[in-house]
Specification:
By secondary structure, the chain is an all-alpha fold. The protein has 4 helices and no strands. The longest helix is centred in the middle third of the chain and has 35 residues.
Length: 142
């Protein structure tokens, strides 16, 4: 049982890396969009959407499914305060995930309505959430 749980945990972490890495890459890519004009701008937006739909969504799905499986394997973990805080941060991250995807779809039709600052802020928010989730998971303070 310990081996199976460890394997699932490793895949869960792999999903987190895919999800967060993809989100951070897409925000960095989109921060360059306002500087571009014409075809390069459209290509940046298309690449961002494609990366989001493949890597980011896949990473999020793997992370969430395996996280739920880990909780189902050991439901007693829900009695710890750190997991409640972590799940709240993951919910906030999911909110930004959906909001960010909708923003990308909007920009495909209105490419001039973005600023690089907007995407740097999103990049910072994702980074801060990731650090907070990692700290909660590793230190388990509550």
């Amino acid at each position: 049982m310990y081996f199976v749980r460890g394997f699932i945990l490793a895949l869960h972490i792999f999903g987190v890396i895919f999800w967060m890495g993809g989100l951070l890459m897409v925000t960095s890519l989109l921060a360059r969009v306002p500087e571009e004009v014409g075809l390069p701008k459209e290509r940046f937006l298309g690449a961002a959407r494609g990366l989001f739909e493949s890597t980011v969504n896949l990473g999020a799905a793997v992370t969430i499914m395996l996280g739920l499986l880990l909780v189902l394997m050991d439901p007693s973990v829900l009695r710890h305060g750190w997991i409640s805080a972590k799940l709240l941060l993951v919910a906030i991250l999911l909110f930004y995930h959906v909001r960010f995807y909708r923003r990308i779809k909007f920009l495909e039709n209105h490419p001039s309505q973005s600023t690089s600052r907007e995407f740097r802020v999103i990049h910072g928010m994702v980074s801060a959430l990731l650090i907070a989730i990692l700290v909660l998971t590793m230190i388990k303070p509550f």
